[in-house]
Each structure stands twice: as structure tokens, then as C-alpha cells.
Amino acid sequence: MGLANGLTVSEETATAVVHPDSISHLEITISDGQVKLAWQIQTRTIMEVTSLEWDGADLWSTTDEEAQRYWTPTKAYLESGFDLQIDGEAWLPEFEDFELREEGNGFYVECTKSVDKKPQSIHLGVQHFFEDGNGLHIMDVYVSGLTEAVDRYFIQYGHRTIDFPLPHDPNAPAAANQSTLQRYFSLGWGHVLEGVDHLAFVLALLFGVATWRALLAAVTAFTLAHSITLALSAFNILQLSPAIVEPGIAISVAVVLWWHLWKGPGESHAWKPAFGFGLLHGCGFAGVLGEIGIPEEAMVPALLGFNLGVEAGQLTFVIPVIVVGLALHRVLPTKAARSALHLFAIILAAFAFHLVGLASTSYIGIDFPLLPDALQALPIILAFAFLLWLIAGKRPTADGQAIRPQVLNAFILVLLFEAGFWLGS
To answer: Which residue, 239, 270, 283, 325, is the most exposed by fewest CB within 10 angstroms?
Structure first.
């Protein structure tokens, strides 16, 4: 969503969009009689190119053996998409080899060209990914050594061609004038609105909020917590494996929801779980930011912009939810409103169970050989739901409803969903 800011995608490319946070970093460096081109791409972005027919075991990363298997067609694809000219002379980059980075999430290639004199201009046009892969792809381009300044431009679907040095005037294309803070604000905003696990956690938090003061406290605590771990992770002070972070985020949705239902808004003190689990969610945001990449020379504005974008995205989601909730509370009779709230809690709990199963199989790699692929998450969901059922015991919710039947209803609902998905596949 946020990545589509100012971006028009045709119907053909829109159908191929799978990975919204697709961004690659291209650095062109001029020094010592040569021009060096270095390009780091998210592995997932390459996998989305249908003509390459990548079929790795992991949807987001790859092993060296898998990458070697697809290197010949990938090399040809990466080289053929450039329209690159140095002082009017065409240069077709040739990548001899590749390097895997970020634990297989990053795909890195480079090449050099000797020049007799310092170039005065560079023309760059690219066609990679837009039509046959990810139409929302963004190429973050840096050119250094051409002038005293480092020129930066964001190539995207509607702006695929640029000449360096940049004009740096009000008439330049909008993408050229967009600051690092603005670009990463859009990335953060878009990620939150497409991050269903984070949004589900925010909904779970609202079950523990009864006043505007409590809402402000919970939002502030969550913001402070995820800002801390996001910054620590960005500066490589704290690193947690996605195998811990992603299942933990999914579990946090169910735990916070049932805690608030048990304690009630008046006793649950939503700011406490908001801060505690917010630290974990910050590591999740950091994982996304790590995949996108942060320019070292613009670390602070990129981090600030992404964090502000996350907050803006959360507010974009929360405010309409609160408005609708208040409106329904005024319109519906008290009993009907309470029943609707319990029904929504069951649906949210079922979704949380689904997230737990999906995160466990995807990031931890838990495998059940006797089950078809579409039902791999079911044993994890069953175990987690049974654990909550045991913990609930005979405890009622704050308004006197038994918790165990609600856990059971949520499990039945997610079971029907998983079975329907299996039958449909």
C-alpha cells in the first residue's frame, strides 16, 4: 500500500505482485579509472520472476546450492535488463558470480568497467522485475564519484530511466527529490497496513482498553517498546532469529487477547503487555527493515522515517476501528453489543491460532510427513489451543463467560478454515 505512493501498476503487473516490500540497492562508484556496479537484491524478488521458475524449499531465502542451480538463467536476466551508458557509450554489465547475504535473503552481484577518463554523465534505465515479477519493486540507486555529491534516485514502475548527475532543481522528477525519510516512511506505513500479525495484536490490545487514557498509555508503551528494539536491531546491538520472533508475535496475539478477556479492561493494564510484547514486535519490524536494507550514510533518517511510518500505519488502522466500535456500542443494545464482542473475540482468536501454526511451520521448519502441505500447521494449532484450554481451567471472563468454550469455538473455527483451504487446494 505505502509502496504504491504515486505508482500506477497495470493489470498485468498487478497480478504478479506478491512481495510488497521489494527493494534492491544499486551502487555505481567511480574511482581509480574504473566504474564499479554493485547490486544487492532480495532473493524473494528474484523468485517472483515467473520466467526464472525458481522453486526453492524456502519462499524467502535460498541456499548456495539452490542459487547455483538457477544461476545461468538468473545471470542472463539480471544482465539483460539494463540500459546503461557512460558518457553516451553503452555498457552491458556482466556478472561473473554471485554472493548470498543476509542468511540467503540477499543476492549480491558486481562488475567493473575500466575508463580512460573520469565520466561526466551516466544514463541508467532498468526493466527488471516490473513486468514479469514484482510491479511494486523499487531500485534504490546511489552514484558516487561523478560529482562531489552522492546522487540518489529511487527507480520504480513509473520512473525507470534517469540521467546522472541529477539536476537537483524543483523541476526534477518527484522520485528524485524524495528524501530518505519520506521513502522509508512509506515503507513503514505500507508494511504495517499489510502486516496482519501486527494489526491483529493491536486489535487484541483494544480488548484491554476502557478509557482514552488507557488507550493512550497502551499506544505509547507499544510505540516506545518497538522503537527500542527496532533501533537496537538496526545498529546490530540486538539480533533475534525469525524462528523466535515470528512465532512469538503470533503467540502474543492470542495471549494478550485471552488475558484481556479474563481480566477485563479495568484490571488488565493493557500498557504492560503492550510494552512487553512490543519489544518482540520491534524485532519483527527490524527483520523487515533488514530485508529492505538501510543505507549506512542515511541510517538515522531511514530508521526515523520507517518508525514514523509504522506509527502512522497503526493510527490509520486503529482510528476507524475505534470509531466503528463506538458507533456500534451506541446503536446496539447492551446484550447484543456484548455478544458481538465475544463473537469478534472468537474470530480473532481463531486467526491468532492460524498465525501460530503458519509461523511455526514457516520459520521454525516443523514438518509432519504424514500430513499434506495444506494441513502442516494443524498439529501446532491443536497443541497451542489445547495448552490455552488447560491454562484457562474454570476461569471466566470479566463479564462472567466461561473461557474454555470460547477457546474451543475458536479452534473449531480455525479447523474449518484449514480443512476448507486443504479441500480447495
So the answer is: 239
